[in-house]
Design goal:
This protein has 327 residues and is an alpha/beta fold. The chain folds into 2 domains: 189 residues, D-Maltodextrin-Binding Protein, domain 2, CATH 3.40.190; 132 residues, D-Maltodextrin-Binding Protein, domain 2. The chain contains 11 helices and 10 strands. Strands 1, 2, 3, 4, 5, 6, 7, 8, 9 and 10 form a 10-stranded mixed sheet that branches. It starts with a helix and ends in a 13-residue tail after the last helix.
Length: 327
């Protein structure tokens, strides 16, 4: 299956770029912005990279914007304040059901999926000097940084730790800022939810000794049974602090677009991203999962018609009519 996708992508690469150049651009914007998350996190690195790549290939100006993460991105893309954004499927579902805290009661159904990104693992990090090396050893009332308010981490990790019996003082902020606070002793733990390797964790490892704390098999299963996450294992080679793979749970990420964007534009964007995975991996290692067959992981968001057309024409991924916006 993977070989078929690879061959299909290679065969359509040149034709796809030619089509993008020949497409009617009369309704295309002259520039676009991608909603990411805080600096120091994977979303910002990944989103900035693909915005620049797509902008260069299509000959329009593309850039990234620092945001509060998936919940805010769903809101901004839904309203059209941003053309594109990045989200995880848990916050996407809550936003579509009117449970986004930015606008409670508003069904954010004008944000469409355009391509799969990667899985977001949930992991806990503490300084080795703290003695915290397991979920059970997190002290009562620990000061825990959960990332930017409204991010996937901030939305789900507090609930997860409560489910596992952890009590805490909640702190929010960008990943780089929280990493600095952990190093300065102002935080006891950071609960990360981001694509790996997380830039802030890699930076911490250079400066000090850290513990990347896995879930036990029982804790992992408890979280899978309670939340919209799946089993995941952080490979040992991801961080120098890991001597063996670490049990985790994860949630899928998808790039999204305002559903009213021109079909030809979104089709061209998807073609740039999906037709050459090596370029995406050069942006961020997590993009190894940014491959066409993972489009099947979207069971939540409606597909943008331009994206659905690309997957139907170039892959064996099945997208039903009722999963396409306006279909």
């Amino acid at each position: 299956m993977k070989t078929q996708f690879t061959i299909a992508a290679a065969c359509t690469l040149a034709a796809g770029f030619a089509t993008a150049q020949e497409a009617d651009r009369s309704d295309w914007p002259s520039s676009f912005t991608v909603g990411t998350a805080s600096q120091g996190g994977t979303y910002f690195a990944y989103g900035s990279g693909w915005a620049n790549l797509v902008g260069d290939e299509l000959g329009i100006s593309g850039g990234a914007e620092v945001t509060g993460g998936p919940m805010q991105n769903m809101a901004l893309v839904h309203t059209g304040d941003l053309a594109f954004g990045l989200t995880t499927l848990g916050p996407a579902r809550e936003s579509m059901e009117g449970q986004n805290p930015i606008a409670p009661g508003l069904a954010m159904d004008n944000a469409c999926a355009i391509f799969p990104m990667y899985q977001t693992p949930f992991s806990v990090t503490a300084l080795s000097a703290s003695g915290i090396d397991s979920i059970e050893s997190i002290p009562d009332g620990a000061r825990i940084g959960f990332g930017p308010a409204g991010s996937t981490s901030d939305t789900y990790f507090p609930r997860m730790l409560e489910e596992l019996g952890v009590s805490y003082e909640r702190r929010n902020g960008g990943w780089s800022d929280l990493g600095g606070q952990l190093q300065d002793g102002l935080l006891d733990v950071i609960a990360f939810a981001a694509g790996i390797p997380i830039p802030a964790v890699s930076q911490l490892e250079v400066q000090t000794d850290v513990n990347i704390i896995p879930f036990t098999d029982e804790q992992q299963q408890q979280l899978i049974d309670t939340f919209p996450v799946s089993e995941f294992e952080i490979p040992a080679e991801t961080y120098s602090s890991l001597s063996e793979p670490a049990n985790s749970v994860a949630m899928w990420n998808f790039a999204i677009a305002n559903c009213d964007l021109p079909e030809s534009l979104v089709n061209a964007v998807v073609d740039v991203v999906m037709s050459d995975n090596e370029r995406m991996v050069n942006i961020h290692r997590s993009a190894q999962a940014t491959i066409p067959e993972n489009a099947s992981q979207n069971t939540v968001l409606p597909w943008h018609p331009g994206a659905a057309r690309w997957f139907r024409e170039n892959t064996d991924v099945e997208i039903s009519d009722d999963m396409i916006h306006g279909g």
